[in-house]
Write a structure and sequence with these properties.
There is one protein chain. Helices cover about 85% and strands about 0% of the residues. It has about 50 residues and is mainly alpha-helical. It has one domain. The radius of gyration is 17 Å and the shape is elongated. The model has no long low-confidence stretch (mean pLDDT about 80).
């Protein structure tokens, strides 16, 4: 089983890891929490780009 897995491109491993994290976090994080975090990051980026 490891030989076929070793031939997979790295990007497939990364996608698999992202999907696994999403499945693990699905029951922990609420959509509203994600939206709030995203909005906070967007505001920080806007402030950062307006300073430059």
């Amino acid at each position: 089983i490891y030989v076929p897995l070793e031939t997979l491109p790295t990007r497939m491993w990364e996608a698999d890891r992202i999907l696994q994290l999403e499945a693990e976090c699905r029951n922990i994080l609420l959509h509203a929490d994600l939206v709030h975090r995203r909005n906070t990051h967007v505001e920080h980026l806007k402030q950062f780009t307006s300073i430059s």
